[in-house]
Amino acid sequence: MRLGEFGVWTSYRQIGEENAGAAASLVEQLGFGTFWLGGSPQLPALRPLLEATERIVVATGILNVWASEPERVASDFAELEAGFPGRVLLGIGIGHPEATSTYRKPLAAMRAFLDGLDTAETPVPRTRRCLAALGPKMLELSAERSLGAHTYFVPTEHTQGARKLLGETSILAPELACVLDDDVESARATARNYAALYLGLRNYTNNLLNHGFSQQDIDDGGSDRLIDTVIPHGDAGAISAAARQHLSAGADHVCLQTVGATGLPGSEWTAVASALGL
Length: 278
Known about the structure:
The chain has a single domain, classed as Alpha-Beta Barrel (TIM Barrel). Helix 4 links the parallel strand 4 and strand 5. The chain has an 8-stranded parallel barrel, surrounded by 6 helices. The longest helix has 15 residues. The protein is of the alpha/beta class. It contains 13 helices and 10 strands.
């Protein structure tokens, strides 16, 4: 699939589902290659985004295996594929133990879910799905059983290591949260507000501890170094430079999530697109 070098990552909680069509149309007009819908959506939630656009890829970021049945997901995928051929990417994730009471062995659960997609009446092709992955084993599984990996809340050091694990042919698509704000203190405050959830989830904190950060960096809302690294801030040029660092580290595609804006962040997306030269 042609994701393009850059995409947008957002959720209906941020933009409002009633604005889905306008948001997707703007993202396509600005030259982004992929629209990632977060918030653990089911595939039918992508329909208004697809209907409002002509060419961009629309992806789930991510469909949660604990809230989904493979046969139903495969059926939903086939229905969207019939109407919008070649434009749907099924991003699949295992979620977090803190959020799922039935959470069990993540690799086994993911393999079982993928087996279900493969044996469904209308299977989801390997090349039309990707896995949310942070640790080495899930990254390796994403290379083995899907198009590649979608990573989240990661520094460039993780992107560099993930590329080595994935090999040269698998897609690596990190999400990059960012704050368009020239005031350092207010930008960091916005970033910390966003980061609070993720700094309380051990999948993310363990990953940060494995990539150059200490527990002291994680405590008390995150050190300035952690916040500035994982959630870059500044003008659109600074955000563009941070996104390109992930490309230099081995990413194929970077999906940008502008945080701190309310509603549809049209001005932020427009500024970033311009700075990226789209």
